[in-house]
Design a protein that fits this description.
Blueprint: E1 17-24, E2 30-40, E3 43-50, E4 55-58, E5 62-66, E6 69-74, E7 79-86, E8 91-98, E9 101-110, E10 134-142, E11 147-155, E12 162-168, E13 179-180, E14 183-184, H1 185-195, E15 199-203, H2 220-235, E16 240-248, H3 250-261, E17 268-272, H4 279-289, H5 298-312, H6 318-332, H7 334-341, H8 344-358, H9 361-367, H10 371-377, E18 382-387, H11 395-407, E19 414-419, H12 446-461
Parallel strand pairs: 12-15, 12-16, 16-17, 17-18, 18-19
Antiparallel strand pairs: 1-2, 1-9, 2-3, 3-4, 5-6, 6-7, 7-8, 8-9, 10-11, 11-15, 13-14
Helix pairs in contact: 2-3, 3-10, 4-5, 5-6, 6-8, 7-8, 10-11
């Protein structure tokens, strides 16, 4: 039930970086849009996130800039943005369009100091070249999916047969650096691990960066197939020893799946903010915790979302499922949204977006996937850590479930740890809401990084 977009250019100035804009709904409710603009192969590329809607990693079709005008072609997503740069206010002023609806949206650039000047916005922990280790751009194939995955392999300058890990990104298409909310958490993690003597392979998700393929039609199981190919790529190298997996968020539930598929080839796994309960329950928790509007009855809202997930999970003709789901939302959710959105037309458009997001291949697979089942079957050592302030994947629900699964499972070597005061991205936080992520200087808490690297080295050396 949200939107997104991308694009940029400001005459001869460098507009790469993070841009932010707000849309105010009824009763003071705000939706924050974050446009992360980067230059890729000589062209502008934007990643859009909408924190209050738990949306991250949206990729509009094209970003163009001409004569001070910014056009974000999000026709592949059912939306778009057009704006003109106001040099006096240092912002793009324009309109965001979703379907037939247009709303004013101005975008200002965020810097580390919180100003809106056009300048670099790299976070303090992002490593700067030259690195004290070797970095190699690599490609490998997923023959079954007929795609090529591109990434970066880093290793220490001296030594051989290094323990190695494959980094697995979270939900929403991401590049190899895990670029989101103005941070590059996978880059920071890879940098730390390599400095500790651990080789790292991180790669662009299919359909993103330099990787080919279609992200929009893929499921968690498909992404697991990509990770298997990454492991096979490392196995062919003569500079790699034992191979492990580190997955963040959705990556944390992909890791045990791959470990079970490749039991003889995966030496250990690390789950970072991974879920531990069935996808349908995770989706419900997210809908309740991150909902950007009040409801008359929490109990009635929960019943409505549970029923929506049941409908979306049905087998059969997808158009019939959409029709049933639309009728359900019109009966249960539309009366809540209409006073805030102001018209039936806007409410219908929002409902349409909700329905489409519920019935994607990824969503329908995710509802029925229970990572606890995979954690029970894992035979290799496991480290599972979650932040105590994570509102997306609450530790008191998910980490508890992972620990229970491991205690009742096949591995005898596991460690489960809740890290105090950290959010979903392992940042020390204050409000700990998603809207705060990009405002924090810290990308990945140093104590969390140490927990990960020390456990890996202890595990491979034992």
């Amino acid at each position: 039930a949200v939107m997104l977009l991308m694009t940029i250019g400001i005459y001869s100035q460098d507009i790469t970086g993070v841009w932010q804009g707000k849309v105010t709904l009824g009763k003071g409710k705000e939706i924050v849009f974050i446009f992360d603009i980067q230059e890729v192969n000589g062209e502008l590329s934007t990643t859009v996130s909408i924190p209050s809607q738990r949306v991250e990693g949206l990729k509009p079709k094209q970003t163009t800039f001409s004569n001070g005008g910014l056009t974000v072609d999000g026709s592949n997503l059912g939306m778009g943005y057009q704006g003109k740069y106001n040099s006096a206010k240092m912002q793009f002023e324009g309109e965001f369009q979703e379907g037939a609806n247009k709303i004013p949206l101005n975008l200002k650039k965020e810097t580390e100091e919180g100003s809106n000047e056009i300048e670099g916005n790299g976070k303090p922990q992002e490593p700067k070249q030259p690195y004290p280790y070797l970095a190699e751009n690599v490609t490998f194939k997923n023959e079954a999916a007929n795609i090529t995955l591109a990434g970066t392999f880093t290793k220490p300058k001296e030594g051989s047969k290094f323990p190695a890990v494959v980094l697995i990104s979270g939900s929403g298409g991401q590049d190899r650096d895990g670029t989101a909310f103005g941070h590059k958490n996978l880059l920071v993690l890879a940098d730390h691990l390599t400095r500790q003597g651990i080789a790292v392979l991180r790669f662009d998700d299919r359909g993103f960066g330099e990787s080919t393929g279609d992200f929009s039609t893929a499921t968690t199981a498909d992404f697991a197939g990509d990770v298997e190919c990454a492991v096979e790529f490392l196995q062919k190298r003569n500079d790699v020893g034992e191979i492990g997996l580190i997955g963040h968020s959705e990556g944390g539930i992909i890791a045990p799946m791959v470990a079970n598929r490749m039991q003889d080839n995966v030496a250990f796994i690390v789950s970072l903010a991974g879920a531990g309960v069935e996808g349908s329950e995770t989706s419900l928790i997210v809908s309740k915790n991150l909902r950007p509007f009040p409801v008359p009855s929490e109990e009635a809202y929960e019943r409505a979302i549970r029923q929506a997930i049941r409908i979306a999970s049905k087998r059969g003709d997808i158009e019939k499922i959409k029709t049933e789901l639309t009728a359900h939302y019109q009966k249960t959710i539309a009366p809540i949204l209409r006073p805030m959105l102001g018209s039936k037309e806007k409410t219908d458009e929002t409902i349409k977006g909700l329905v489409e997001s519920r019935v994607t291949p990824w969503s329908r697979y995710f509802y029925g996937y229970n990572p606890a089942d995979e954690f029970k079957k894992v035979k290799c050592p496991v480290l599972a850590i979650n932040g105590s302030k994570d509102i997306q994947v609450p530790a008191d629900v998910h980490l508890v479930a992972i620990e229970r699964a491991l205690k009742n499972g096949k591995t005898k070597n596991f460690k489960v740890k809740e890290l105090d005061g950290l959010n979903h991205f392992f940042q020390k936080c204050e409000s700990c809401k998603m809207s705060e992520y990009q405002k924090l200087d810290e990308t990945f808490n140093s104590e969390a990084l140490e927990v990960i690297s020390s456990w890996i080295l202890e595990t491979v050396n034992s």
